[in-house]
Every structure is written in C-alpha cells, then in structure tokens.
Design goal:
The protein is an all-alpha fold. It has nine helices and no strands.
Length: 212
C-alpha cells in the first residue's frame, strides 16, 4: 500500500507540471524537443529547482544522463517506495520512446552550459570534509569532476542539498536497493562510512569548494 501511494503521488506531481509527451508527436523527437518536458522541473537551462527537489543537470556527461534514464525506465532507480523523487522520474523517463530518444535527450542535457549551484546547507566544515572526501576521490576524481571509467558522475557544481539527500538515500538503502543497480550498490557502503548527517555536510561542504 505504501509503495502504491508513493507511485500515485509521483504520477500526480508529474501531471501537475504538465510533463506530458505531445499527443501525435512524431516517433523520434530531437533532444531539444524531448527536453521540453524535463524543463518543467529542471529548468530550461538545466539548473534544477530546489523547491521540487530537482537537481542541477546542466552539462552532465551524456553517458551518465543516459545511464540514469535507462535505470529509471527499467525501474532500477526509483525502485524503493520511499524514493519519491526517483518514482517521479520513472514516468518521465518513459516518455522517451526508444534508445535513440534516450541518447538524444542525454546529448542535449550534456550540451547545456554547466552552472555551479549556490550553496544552501548550513553547518558543514569543508576542512573536516577534505579528509572524508579521500574515499570519494577514487571514483569521483580529486576535484569532483567525475570519471567515466568508474561510472561516477561529477559532483562539483551540484546542489549541496541534493548531495546530502542522495548520501542519506544510499546510507538508508533507499537508493541502490535494486539487485541490478551495481553502481548504486557500490555507493551504499561508501555512504555508510559517513557516521552521521554532520559528516555528510562536511564532505559536501568540501565538494562545494571545487570549481566546475
């Protein structure tokens, strides 16, 4: 029942923003056309919207955007009933009709000019977070630039509230819960190494010192 209510809520949120694929649209849309639905939540520039928990996606690598869309479409991400934001993305991702459209919108998102989100989380200690980030560095890079080889996304420039929320999801088993989510599963023990929310704020404050 809880999962059904969460799914219903996610669909209701999508409908409220009018993120509906145009009726009678041609089979394969261009990335810019497909992104029109995404813009309702992520903004035309891809900078995101904190009020609806939509992260900054502008300039993310196409391989990462594509991988996440595939996860959403297949139910690998947005799998846990408490992942409200993930559940909201599942019907959105299925507006892409095939692999070609997934690749097209991913390429368009990647083409958007990267922006650095303004900080909003209070109480983080960037100096303390520097030591904690050493664990993250092996996959995400020394400056949070992300690495294709490890399938780890860029962290630099992302909203601090989003990074904290995702660390909480990984630590709590809300994200990376699906048996086929291999990269998500790798993050769960990493997030669990952060003892509490203060430790999360510290490492995120350190990430906030990186330029994008």
């Amino acid at each position: 029942m809880h999962r059904l209510m969460s799914v219903s809520l996610a669909f209701a949120i999508v409908a409220s923003f009018g993120c509906i694929r145009p009726e009678g649209a041609k089979k394969t849309l261009a990335g810019s056309e497909l992104y029109a639905a995404c813009a309702s939540c992520h903004g035309e520039a891809g900078a995101g919207n904190a009020s609806i928990a939509a992260p900054n996606i502008a300039g993310l690598p196409a391989w990462y955007v594509e991988a996440q869309l595939v996860k959403y479409r297949s139910g690998i991400r947005g799998y846990h009933p408490e992942d409200i934001e993930g559940l909201r993305m599942r019907p959105m991702s299925r507006q892409m009709m095939d692999e070609a459209e997934v690749k097209a919108v991913a390429a368009y998102v990647s083409s958007l000019k990267a922006v650095k989100a303004a900080p909003s989380v209070q109480g983080g200690d960037a100096t303390a977070g520097a030591g904690q980030y050493a664990t993250c560095q092996a996959c995400h890079g020394d400056k949070g630039q992300g690495m294709d080889a490890t399938k780890a996304p860029p962290l630099a420039g992302q909203y601090d509230w989003y990074l904290v929320s995702q660390l909480k999801k990984f630590k709590g088993g809300v994200r990376g819960a699906h048996p086929l989510d291999t990269t998500g599963a790798q993050m769960r023990p990493m997030a669990s190494m952060l003892a509490d929310e203060q430790a999360m704020k510290n490492v995120v404050a350190h990430i906030g010192t990186f330029s994008r």
